[in-house]
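thought: fold this chain, then report.
action: predict
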Amino acid sequence: MEPLDHAADRSIRRALGFTGLAIGTVMLALSYDLPLALRSGADLMALAAVVLLGMAWRSRGTDPRDSETWALFSAMRPEFANTLRRTEAQRLLAATLRRRLLWHAERVGAAAVALWALMGLMLLLR
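observation:
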C-alpha cells in the first residue's frame, strides 16, 4: 500500500521537522559549550525516539478517521478511502503507522547515538 506509506511518512516527517527545529534551537542556544550542546541534542533526540516508539505501540488503538495520515490518504485516494470499512481501515492504518514510526524511531535513535559519540569525542580531545 504505497500511497498509505507516503501519507504516513509525510505526517511523521512534518512532526519530526518541527521537533528538529526545536532541538536545533536548543543546541544553538547552548553553543557556547559544544559538548553540552551535543549532549542536550542527543538527549532530546533520544526523547523524540522514545515518543515515536510510544506512538507506534499505541497505533493499534487509534481511530483511523481522526488522524492526519488518514486525511492525507483520503485526499490522495478518495475512491479507495471511502470504500474501506472502518475495521479494515483501522487495521491497514495501524500496521502502516507502526511500521513507519518504528523506521523513523530507529533513524532518530541512530542520530542520538551519533551525537553522544561526538560529544564523547569532544570531551576526550579537550
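thought: worth noting. Residues 2-125 form one domain.
final: C-alpha cells above.
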